[in-house]
Write a structure and sequence with these properties.
By secondary structure, this protein is of the alpha/beta class. The protein has ten helices and seven strands. Helix 8 crosses helix 9.
């Protein structure tokens, strides 16, 4: 079984040695790749000294790193984990076995079981629940921790994933990708640890939360255009009706239309509402064709052989 451990890194010199060493211990036959994303410290140097294969991605952002990793590395199974030593390397064999034995395409290590009270900051935990709930509502209820940075993928998933995100919103893309073409996925609860003293999270609660939210909305427009444009159509239609009510009442009482600009605005909004609904229906056919193409591309990649599952 050819297993590749992929570690995106930015300024993680305090933790990268532990991450590489722990995964070397628990997945001794795996190749460990550390992708350095313009670190200003000794992350790349320490990773190389620990025996990792070090590569560099000059475009800043986790999404760019994931795109490069998925494009460059060939393997049967991919283990992706952040380089901050907060995830449990001892769970890796269990995650890999579940992926292979159940013929899955992605297994997400959930962070619902924190080993320290400060491991999952309250703001991050709340934001994660809100954003995961939103994606579950819009695309399907399959995840409890959509934003986990610890995942195991099949080759089929990796080589069919378009990877368009730039930053931390890449986890949202990963989730929506498997939901839209109905890949078999699972979650496994694993321990989650706090960062060591001196190590700083690169995630900005508000900025990255906003980007993740905008990514979810963008993916909603791309993958479920009828729902997206129907909502816009409903808002425009309601605005048109509210504006039209006093105009209609006045006309019924007097037979006159003294508020001509309001009447024109109401009619224009209703026309826009109708056009929005039609656009959603047209784009739904385009989306269905794109989804079929993605599914065919996914099927072209050979699945991982369960007979070669690691012990």
């Amino acid at each position: 079984m050819d297993i590749a451990v992929l570690v995106p890194c930015y300024n993680e010199e305090l933790t990268i040695a532990k991450v590489v060493g722990d995964f070397r211990q628990h997945l001794p036959d795996a190749r460990i790749y550390v992708y350095d994303n313009n670190s200003r410290d000794r992350t790349a140097e320490i990773a190389a000294a620990c025996g990792a294969i070090v590569r560099h991605e000059p475009m800043q952002g986790k999404g760019h790193v994931v795109r490069r990793m998925f494009a460059d590395v060939d393997a049967d199974v991919y283990v992706m984990v952040d380089g901050d030593a907060t995830y449990d390397a001892a769970s890796a064999p269990k995650l890999v076995r579940k992926l292979i034995e159940e013929n899955l395409d992605m297994v997400v290590a959930t962070r619902l079981h924190a080993e320290a009270s400060d491991a999952f900051r309250a703001g991050h935990h709340f934001g994660n629940r809100v954003l995961t709930g939103l994606v579950s509502l819009l695309f399907g209820d399959r995840f409890k921790d959509m934003l986990s940075g610890y995942r195991v993928f099949s080759r089929r998933f990796v080589k069919s994933f378009p990877a368009l995100a730039r930053g931390f919103e890449t986890e949202t893309e990963l989730a929506v990708h498997c939901l839209t073409i109905r890949m078999p996925v699972a979650e496994v609860e694993t321990p989650y640890y706090s960062r060591p003293q001196g190590s700083v999270s690169k995630l900005s609660t508000y900025r990255d939360g906003w980007r993740i939210l905008m990514t979810a909305i963008r993916l909603l427009k791309a993958e479920r255009p009828v729902l997206f444009f129907s909502f816009i159509s409903f808002v425009l239609a309601m605005a048109a009706i509210v504006l039209a009510i006093p105009v209609v009442l006045t006309f019924m009482e007097t037979g006159l239309v003294p508020r001509l600009p309001t009447a024109l605005l109401s009619a224009s909004l209703m026309i826009l509402a109708f056009l929005s609904l039609v656009a959603g229906l047209i784009l739904a056919n385009v989306t269905e064709g794109r989804r079929e193409q993605k599914r065919l591309l996914y099927l072209q990649v050979p699945r991982t052989d369960p007979a070669r599952s690691p012990t």
